[in-house]
Amino acid sequence: MKKRVSLSIFVFVFAMLSIPAFFIMQSYGVFQKEKVLSDYALAIEVNGKSYATWPLINGYAAMDKAEENRQFYYRMDTSGLQNLFQLAYQEYEIEPNDTNPYLAGQINYSSDAMNYVQEEQQYLNANDFIPIVKVFNHDGQLIYTYEKTGKGDGKLVQSIIHQGMTRSNGNGSSKAARDPYLNITALFQDQLHMDVQLTVDEERKIVSIRINKPEARS
Question: How much is the CA Rg of the chain, to the nearest whole Å?
Answer without folding.
Answer: 21
